[in-house]
Write a structure and sequence with these properties.
Elements (H helix, E strand, L loop, with lengths): L2 H24 L2 E2 H10 L6 H13 L3 E5 L9 E5 L1 H27 L4
Antiparallel strand pairs: 1-3, 2-3
Bound molecules: zinc ion.
């Protein structure tokens, strides 16, 4: 596995999940939009990665989804944040804030030469 793929799998995958939960908290998200949003943020995410992620978050009970059947067979699946998903997001936000402060402290202690 090349370095980028390794970083994606080991670390950024978690970022993408947080990102999905965050946007689902603002309103329903659809896969295609989420894909573009992640790419906007500079992440190299493919549909083959994103769609299984959405499915997994749903399986954990953090998202739920529905399809508007009146919009025909090509209607997009909409993902909504559940109450359990909100709890996950709250916890992750706290931890992320903590990590962010830690990282900033480290930079001050050990300035680059
Ligand atoms: Zn975003």
């Amino acid at each position: 596995m090349d370095t980028n793929a390794l970083i994606n799998k080991e670390i950024l995958l978690g970022f993408w999940k947080i990102h999905i939960l965050h946007h689902a908290a603002e309103g329903p998200v659809v896969g295609q939009w989420m894909l573009q949003e992640l790419q906007h943020h500079g992440y190299n995410v493919s549909p083959g990665t994103l769609y299984p992620l959405l499915k997994r978050l749903e399986k954990h009970g953090w998202l739920r989804s529905e399809v508007d059947s009146e919009r025909g067979p090509k209607a997009p699946r909409r993902y909504y944040l559940t109450a359990a998903g909100h709890e996950v997001l709250d916890l992750v936000e706290r931890q992320l804030g903590e990590l962010q402060r830690e990282l900033q402290t480290q930079v001050r202690k050990f300035p680059p030469k």
